């Protein structure tokens, strides 16, 4: 069994040399980029919206416990049941137990990264329950038996042709043609049956509104409303960091989330759920369960330095702008959350599981920090994670290298000698024809790049003879 | 009395690309500055800082602050190393007795193009370079120092130079320090995408404020048999009118 870092290197090597994959993903992201640029132009002041969203989420995170308790009390008063799940196991056991006790055979799911995080579908399927992803992109990756490729657009890596092939194989009886509208219609026909047979609908939450005691869900396909209103039972699984203080906060959060993620002015269906069916109402689920998942989040909350990570509203903007994501794509990370936010979040969410390398798999270009709609300083978080990785793990080789580096840098005389030795070594290696050969000590560099000419003298020795004019 | 600047030369420029620093001296002298080079300087500590070895980075930072504290104006031909001092030293030396000195030194250190345009108020340095050039805005210069117009203003005043705009110019070239060898395959793919965009401009040269990007990009361009050559902005500015 390979370690996460070995797996990452293997997949990154494969994906970064796959030009077809690279072109597909870059072309798909470019079309989002255009829409996002147009979308930002619709704001009177995009930067002011970012600043406001950042303040709202910072306030929410700083007072997380009291806002959550407010949310809990209000939604309970309308008959919802709230379960605080400390771990992924707790959350899965609760849902599985509920499904068993209510005789659930079919579940329809609204796209939710938290349910991916706790691997909920697999657990339910093991109990013999049919689980249907109802977001088109999620449905496609589910049919392919793959995890989502991107936190917002899960099937971003696929072309229309690949999707048509998949549908021909998996749902041949629903197929009437292979143009995009016909593919959408085929999925719709397949999913309609599920919506009306499911006893349980499972969703995540985009926001939990404390003062209203409501769950806010944004979808583009209407699948969210069908999944949360037709089945008898609605289960919300959500991270505790999704809380926001006031209903009025959605006035800026909804459009900012939609624009940052896809360039839309607002997501097509913005749904607020305040409880199960109330006396006198004719529709809606009989039961509403809200699972507030911790799963490592309170550890992040406990760290004043890392706490801002919890402001994330999962818009996907940092993935789209990330030049690393644009080369290797979402599956290479091997994590639920990909791209810069995933590289920042995962090592803190699961410190013991060996994802520290992700914080190093970045050129620190800072592009992510400029697009984040809640102004998380992602580049700084990557640096903090690197510092933490050094503090908490043994890297004897690297540690020795930096001891030597420090010894060298603390004296200009030693620096001069080491610089001279390095240049001589480089010249000798070049003279012997080592670069590119099997004996090349600079192989990680020279495998992909030529070496520059080695100068005869350093600047400092030039200065000694030419500097004093 | 001549105006005086102290030169902060990135360690790898000193050892591997001295031409960039020599050309920086030339440009600064040409516009009337006396250039000093504090010879005790070595490295600003960025490689250690970015790798997570903050103790080592701190030792480098304190040493740097002591060496440069007495200098009123400090110029560096690198966006990345300038940003290390300006942006990261204050945090790194938060609990150091040298913290206030670090903040003060940070305010006095300027990246070359920013120094020329904003401090010396010069855009025409008398250079002449009759070639087509495209400009790669390096990440730390752009996003950490907020440099955008300065290098363009300087390039537009170079006699004979034809400036060509680079598609997706703000994308990282993929160097990223130790990232370039630790995750060489990703770094190279990013470089290859950038090199493709450079090639599309058909420019003879690609220029930048950062030698690190240029060593990496030059290596990729040569390795993938693309014609464009890397050249630091200082080396374009150091050319002289015939």
Tell me what the structure shows:
The complex is a heterodimer of chains A (469) and B (242). The mean pLDDT of chain A is 95. Chain A is of the alpha/beta class. The longest helix of chain A is centred in the first third of the chain and has 23 residues, at 19-41. Among the domains of chain A are: 64-295, NagB/RpiA/CoA transferase-like (Rossmann fold); 408-466, no CATH class. Chain A has helices at residues 4-16, 19-41, 46-62, 64-77, 88-101, 113-117, 120-126, 136-143, 160-170, 180-197, 223-229, 250-262, 297-301, 317-321, 325-328, 339-349, 367-371, 378-392, 396-409, 412-431, 443-446, 459-466; strands spanning 81-85, 106-109, 130-133, 200-203, 207-209, 214-219, 233-239, 243-244, 269-273, 287-293. In chain A, helix 2 runs antiparallel to helix 12, helix 9 (160-170) crosses helix 10 (180-197) and helix 16 (339-349) packs parallel to helix 18 (378-392). In chain B, helix 5 runs antiparallel to helix 6, helix 7 (112-119) packs across helix 9 (149-156) and helix 11 (184-201) packs across helix 12 (211-223). Chain B has helices at 11-16, 18-30, 46-51, 54-68, 79-92, 99-108, 112-119, 139-144, 149-156, 179-182, 184-201, 211-223, 233-237; strands at residues 3-7, 33-36, 74-76, 109-111, 132-135, 162-164, 205-208, 229-232. Chain B is globular. In chain B, the strands form 2 sheets. Chain B has a 4-stranded parallel beta sheet with strand order 2-1-3-4, sandwiched between helices. In chain B, strands 6-5-7-8 form a 4-stranded parallel beta sheet, sandwiched between helices. Chain B contains 13 helices and 8 strands. Chain B has 2 domains: 3-119, Rossmann fold, CATH 3.40.50; 132-237, Rossmann fold. The mean pLDDT of chain B is 97. At the A-B interface, helix 1, helix 15, helix 17, helix 18 and helix 19 of A face helix 1, helix 2, helix 3, helix 4 and helix 8 of B.
């Amino acid at each position: 069994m390979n370690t996460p870092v070995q797996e990452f290197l293997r997949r990154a090597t494969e994906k970064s040399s796959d030009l077809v994959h690279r072109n597909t993903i870059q072309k798909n992201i470019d079309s989002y980029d255009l829409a996002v640029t147009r979308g930002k132009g619709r704001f009177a002041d995009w930067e002011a919206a970012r600043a406001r969203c950042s303040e709202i989420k910072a306030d929410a995170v700083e007072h997380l416990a009291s806002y959550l308790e407010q949310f809990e009390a209000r939604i309970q008063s309308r008959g919802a049941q709230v379960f605080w799940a400390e771990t992924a196991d707790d959350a899965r056991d609760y849902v599985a137990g509920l499904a068993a006790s209510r005789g659930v055979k079919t579940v329809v799911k609204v796209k939710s990264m938290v349910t991916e995080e706790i691997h909920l579908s697999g657990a339910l399927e093991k109990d013999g329950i049919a689980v249907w992803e109802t977001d088109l992109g999620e449905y496609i990756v589910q049919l392919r038996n793959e995890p989502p490729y991107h936190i917002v657009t899960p099937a971003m890596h696929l072309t229309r042709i690949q999707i048509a092939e998949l549908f021909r194989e998996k749902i041949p009886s629903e197929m009437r043609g292979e143009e995009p509208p016909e593919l959408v219609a085929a999925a719709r026909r397949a999913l309609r049956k599920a919506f009306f047979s499911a006893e349980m609908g499972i969703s995540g939450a985009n926001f939990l509104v404390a003062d209203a005691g409501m769950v806010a869900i944004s979808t583009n396909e209407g699948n969210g409303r069908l999944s949360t209103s037709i089945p008898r039972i609605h289960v919300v699984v959500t991270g505790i960091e999704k809380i926001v203080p006031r209903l009025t906060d959605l006035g800026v959060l909804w459009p900012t989330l939609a624009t940052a993620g896809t360039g839309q002015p607002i997501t097509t269906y913005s749904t607020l759920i305040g409880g199960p069916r109330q006396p006198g109402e004719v529709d809606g689920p009989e039961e509403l369960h809200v699972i507030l998942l911790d799963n490592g989040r309170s550890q992040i909350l406990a760290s004043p330095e890392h706490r801002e990570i919890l402001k994330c509203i999962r818009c996907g903007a940092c993935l789209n702008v990330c030049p690393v994501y644009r080369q290797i794509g979402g599956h290479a990370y091997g994590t639920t959350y990909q791209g810069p936010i995933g590289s920042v979040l995962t090592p803190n969410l699961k410190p013991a599981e060996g994802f520290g390398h992700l914080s190093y798999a970045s050129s620190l270009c800072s592009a992510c920090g400029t697009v984040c709609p809640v102004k998380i300083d992602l580049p700084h978080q990557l640096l903090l994670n690197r510092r933490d990785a050094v503090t908490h793990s043994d890297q004897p080789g690297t540690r020795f290298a930096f001891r030597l580096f420090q010894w060298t840098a603390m004296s200009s005389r030693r620096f001069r000698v080491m610089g001279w030795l390095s240049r001589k070594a480089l010249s000798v290696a070049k003279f012997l024809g080592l670069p590119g050969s099997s004996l090349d000590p600079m192989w990680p560099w020279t495998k992909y790049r030529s070496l520059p000419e080695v100068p005869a003298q350093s600047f400092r020795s030039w200065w000694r003879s030419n500097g004093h004019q | 009395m001549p105006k005086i600047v102290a030169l902060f030369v990135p360690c790898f420029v000193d050892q591997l690309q001295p031409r960039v620093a020599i050309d920086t001296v030339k440009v600064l002298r040409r516009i009337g500055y006396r250039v000093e080079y504090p010879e005790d300087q070595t490295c600003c500590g960025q490689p250690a800082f970015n790798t997570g070895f903050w103790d080592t980075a701190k030792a480098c930072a304190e040493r740097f602050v002591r060496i440069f504290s007495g200098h009123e104006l400090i110029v560096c031909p690198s966006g990345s190393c300038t940003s290390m001092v300006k942006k990261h030293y204050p945090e790194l030396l938060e609990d150091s007795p040298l913290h206030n000195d670090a903040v003060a030194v940070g305010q006095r250190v300027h990246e070359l193009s920013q120094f020329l345009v904003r401090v010396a108020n010069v855009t025409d340095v008398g250079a002449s370079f009759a070639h087509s050039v495209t400009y790669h805005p390096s990440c730390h210069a752009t996003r950490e120092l907020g440099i955008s117009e300065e290098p363009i203003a300087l390039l537009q005043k170079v006699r004979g130079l034809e400036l060509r705009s680079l598609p997706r110019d703000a994308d990282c070239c993929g160097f990223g320090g130790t990232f370039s060898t630790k995750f060489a395959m990703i770094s190279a793919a990013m470089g290859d995408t950038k090199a493709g965009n450079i090639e599309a401009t058909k420019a003879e040269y690609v220029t930048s404020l950062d030698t690190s990007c240029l060593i990496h990009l030059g290596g990729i361009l040569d390795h993938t048999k693309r014609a464009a050559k890397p050249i630091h902005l200082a080396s374009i500015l150091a050319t002289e009118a015939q």
